C-alpha cells in the first residue's frame, strides 16, 4: 500500500530514522528531557534543604563542629556537615537508581510516588544498618526530621510538577502522539480508553489496521487509517507519531510484532504493547519469561491475610484518631443540624457491604425528614425523563430534598463524618467502593457484584473522580478498578485526593 513499504523494510534499523519527518519524534521528546531536568533540580533543592535543615534544627548550627559518636567518642573528622552532604548525594543517587524520573512513571499513576518513597526509605534504612554495623551513633532526631520532611517535600514537588504537566496536556501541549496498530475493534477500544483520560497525555494520530481494507477511519471514531500493519513505516512518517502502540489481535502474529519492534530500536520511537484486558494493573500483574515467551499472569483480586490485617489496622487507627481530633467539630455539627429544623441529628440507612451483606450507615442528616418518601417520587419523575441523571444510582445534581444546612455540609463532605464510626465497628473502610442501596443492587448485572469483594468506603476512586457527574458505566468501572488493583499506597493517594477535593469543593452528592 501507499509507498509500497512492507514489513521487510524493518530489516534496516535506519528505515524509520532516515526519513526527515520521522525525526520529529526525537524533537518532540525535548519536553520530556526539559521536564526531567526541572524535576531533578527540584529534587536537589528539596534533598539539600531536608538534610541541612534537619542539621540546623537539631544542632542549631550548620558548622562542622558537631561530630558523630563512635563507641562513646566524638569523631571530629566525621561532622554532621559531612553526613548531611553524604546523605543528600546518596538520596539523589537512590532516586535516580529507582528511575523515579523515568518517562514511564511521570505524569500518571502511583508508580512515581511509590518509587520516591521506596528510594527514600532505602537510603535511611542503609544508613541505619551501616551505623549499627560500624557502631556509629547518628543523632536520632536528625534522622527523624530529615526523612519525613524530605519525603513529604519530594512528594509535594512531584505532585506540583504533575499538576503543571496535566494543565499543559489539557491545553494540547506535551502530548505523546500515538500510532495504533491492530484490529479495528481493539484499536477502537484502546483509543476510547486513551481519550477518556486526557491527563495521561496520549493523543491518537492514526492507525494501521489488520484484516481490513479500504477503511478511511477506524469504525466508530474519527481516527484516520494509514494502511495495514505492513505500512507502519510510512504511517509514522505521515503522522509524525513518536509512539507505536500494538493492541492484542489474532490477526497480528508474533513474528510481525517482532519485526516492528526491531525497526523501532534505532529510532526515537517508543513501542507499547497493550493487552486485551483493561483496568487491571499494579500488584496483580506479573510477567514470567518462558523460553523467550513473555507470559502475563493476572492474580485473582483477593486480599491476602497480611493485606487485610494492614488495611484493617490502618482503618482502625486512622478513624479512631480522626474521631478524637475532630470530636469538637462533630459536636458542633450535631448542634447545627438539630437547630436547623428540629429534626433528627443522624440519618441512618441500610446499605449493602462486604460479601453483599446489609449494614446500617450513619451520616449527619442533610435532607428533610421525609426524604425517603420524596425519593420515590423523584425516581418516578426521572423514569419519565424529567431528570437526566445516572440510570442506576439515585443521585441528582440539584436534589430538592437537601436542607440549606445540609447543602453547606455536603459542600465540604461534613455530613459523612459519622461514617468514621462505621469504620471503627468494621462495617466500612476509609477507602473502598461506594456503599450502594438495596434497590440499586437489584439492578446490577452479574459482574458488578465484584465490588462486594471489599468493604465499602467513606471515600474511594469513584468519589474523587466526578461523583454525581459520572455515568453509571464509569461509576462501575472505577469501583471495579479499585477492587482489581488494591494497594495501601493506592488508598493513601485516594485519601490525599479526597482532602484536596474537600479543600477545593466542587459538586458533591452521596
Give an overview of the whole structure.
This protein is an alpha/beta fold and 510 residues long. It has 3 domains: 30-170, no CATH class; 175-276, NAD(P)-binding Rossmann-like Domain (Rossmann fold, 3-Layer(aba) Sandwich), CATH 3.40.50; 305-503, no CATH class. It has 15 helices and 13 strands. The chain has helices at residues 24-28, 30-59, 80-97, 111-133, 140-170, 184-196, 232-239, 254-264, 305-341, 371-383, 404-411, 419-425, 438-441, 472-484, 488-503; strands at residues 67-70, 73-79, 136-137, 176-182, 202-209, 243-247, 270-274, 285-290, 293-298, 346-352, 358-364, 429-431, 457-459. The strands form 5 sheets. It has a 4-stranded parallel sheet with strand order 5-4-6-7, with helices on both faces. It has a 3-stranded antiparallel sheet with strand order 2-1-3. Helix 2 runs antiparallel to helix 5 and helix 9 (305-341) packs antiparallel against helix 12. The chain is globular. The two termini are 55 Å apart. The relative contact order is 0.08. Mean pLDDT is 79; it is low at 1-27 and 506-510.
**Helical residues, percent:** 40-55%
Major β-sheet profile: 4 strands, parallel
Structural class: alpha/beta
Number of helices: 15
Instruction: Give the DSSP E fraction (strand runs of 2 or more residues).
Output: 5-15%
Report the order of strands and helices: HHEEHHEHEHEHEHEEEHEEHHHEHEHH
Strand order of the largest sheet: 5-4-6-7
| Low-confidence residue ranges | 1-27, 506-510
Shape: globular
| Rounded average pLDDT | 79
Number of strands: 13
